[in-house]
Design goal:
InterPro entries: CtaG/Cox11_dom_sf, Cyt_c_oxidase_assmbl_CtaG
Membrane topology: Single-pass membrane protein
CATH topology of the domain at 103-251: Ctag/Cox11 (Pfam 04442)
CATH superfamily of the domain at 103-251: Ctag/Cox11
Pfam families: CtaG_Cox11
Order of helices and strands: HHHHEHEEEEEEEEEE
CATH class of the domain at 103-251: Mainly Beta
Number of helices: 5
Distance between the termini: 144 Å
GO molecular function: copper ion binding
Oligomer: single chain
Shape: elongated
Protein name: Cytochrome c oxidase assembly protein CtaG/Cox11
Largest sheet: 6 strands, mixed
Radius of gyration: 49 Å
Number of strands: 11
CATH architecture of the domain at 103-251: Sandwich
């Protein structure tokens, strides 16, 4: 019995000695802060970002500046070309609108087929109980055009809705060349222009005069009866129709343009 008791005590002591370090380790682990391992992981060295990103070379920088300069050049050329095209197209477009709407002193032009015949006929009825309007005529030429251009009559008197025919005379004073001329026209006072309608006019087309040639140029017009219904026209009794001729030539593309 004593031997058995002694053996049991020795085994118990051995077991206690073996478990003591485990208990101590477990207690140490429990005594550590909860975020100890998390902080340890966060403090691991991170890779250097500057080492991963490749620095641009001189060739890369030159290529970037070259592309930027090329784009800027394209944008600039586009703006210049657009401005030039707009400047060439705006003048005839503006003139066309003025002729249709009577703006800027441009009398309204009536071409064949532009309006219904019944509509035109309804406007060509003289208003007999209205006052007669005094229509005067004027003509001039540009400095580079060697023409003589004058109206054959100083004035005519018409009723609103009544048609009238007037003539101008043009003479090419040059003895060396045939000359092409184009005419611009206007009406004063300018607010009368929407009611001044031309049925036929030499200004609709270019005029070519041989050297020393003289021609008569007619203009067929009327004053729209709506003139009488406009209160702004109540004090207007005199209207002036003015023409100015300019020298013109065809360019290599076949376009007619004035000669300055």
């Amino acid at each position: 019995m004593n031997s058995i008791s002694l053996l049991g005590r020795n085994l118990a002591r051995t077991a206690l000695r073996t478990q003591a370090p485990l208990t101590t380790t477990t207690q140490c682990a429990r005594s550590l802060p909860r975020n100890f391992f998390r902080r340890s992981m966060q403090t691991r060295p991170q890779p250097n970002q500057h080492q991963q990103t490749r620095m641009p070379t001189q060739e890369d920088l030159r290529a970037q500046f070259k592309n930027k300069n090329r784009n800027t050049l394209y944008y600039t050329l586009s703006i210049i070309l657009g401005t030039v095209a707009l400047s060439y197209g705006s003048v005839p477009f503006y003139k066309m609108i003025c002729q249709q709407m009577g703006w800027g002193g441009q009398p309204i032009s009536i071409h064949s087929g532009q309006y219904e015949e019944d509509d035109i006929a309804s406007r060509l009825i003289p208003i007999t109980d209205s006052r007669r309007l005094r229509i005067t005529f004027a003509g001039s030429t540009s400095d580079v055009l060697p023409w003589k251009f004058t109206p054959q009559q100083r004035e005519v008197r018409v009723l609103p809705g009544e048609t009238a025919l007037a003539f101008y005379t043009a003479t090419n004073l040059s003895k060396e060349e045939d000359i092409i001329g184009v005419a611009t026209y206007s009406v004063t006072p300018g607010q009368v222009a929407p009611y001044f309608s031309k049925i036929q006019c030499f200004c609709f087309e270019e005029q070519r005069l041989n050297k020393g040639e003289t021609v008569d140029m007619p203009v067929f017009f009327y004053i729209d009866p709506e003139f009488l219904r406009d209160p702004n026209m109540s004090k207007i009794d005199t209207i002036t129709l003015n023409y100015t001729f300019f020298k013109a030539k065809y360019d290599k593309d076949g376009h007619l343009s004035p000669v300055a």
